[in-house]
Structures are given as C-alpha cells and as structure tokens.
C-alpha cells in the first residue's frame, strides 16, 4: 500500500512569522506572510489530495483482484490517479524552474 507523506508534508509548512527564522521572518508585512501561509496550505492540501487519489486507485485495484470491483471502476480510478500524478509532476517542475531562475538572479 502507498504510505502517506507524513515525513514530507510537514516540510511544506512555511514556519511562523514571529522572527524565529521562519521563511517569512523578514517579510514586507502581514500580507506577505498570510499569502505565503495560504500558498503553503494550498500545496499541503494538493499533496494530500493527490495521495488520497493514488490510495483510492490502489484500493479499487485490490478490490478488482478480489472480484469486488469491475474493470470500469479500476480504469476510472487509475486514470484519475494518473492525472493527479501528472499535475503534481508539473507543479514540481514549475517550482524547480522558478527556484533556478531566482538562484541565477544578480544580487
């Protein structure tokens, strides 16, 4: 079975804004910190949803092997999981590209 990303998902948390070294400790103000927190929450929810979709596809596949689900249900679940995985890979690629662009900026 697919295990959760409990070790990775907490790393998506952006930290707090009270100046203890979190990501937004030197932000321009509370608006920037709130935007960062909501973005982190959105990424966390998206990762959780993708994991849930993959687990659902796996469960339906196991049910089909046991004779409890038909092929159409398996195909629907696997196609949905594939779409979620492709979206996650696309988001990861965009994040890596953005990071590389920022790292090349002159200071």
TrEMBL record:
Reading the lineage from the top rank, the first entry is Bacteria
Q: Which UniProt keywords apply?
A: Bacterial flagellum, Cell projection, Cilium, Flagellum
Location(s) in or outside the cell: Bacterial flagellum basal body
| Biological processes, Gene Ontology terms | bacterial-type flagellum-dependent cell motility
Q: Which residues form a coiled coil?
A: none
Q: Does the keyword Flavoprotein apply?
A: no
Q: Which GO terms describe its molecular function?
A: cytoskeletal motor activity; structural molecule activity
Give the Pfam families listed for this entry: FliE
- InterPro entries recorded: FliE
What are its GO cellular component terms? bacterial-type flagellum basal body
- Similarity field: Belongs to the FliE family.
Q: What is this protein called?
A: Flagellar hook-basal body complex protein FliE
Organism expressing this protein natively: Mesorhizobium alhagi CCNWXJ12-2
**What's the name of its gene?**
fliE
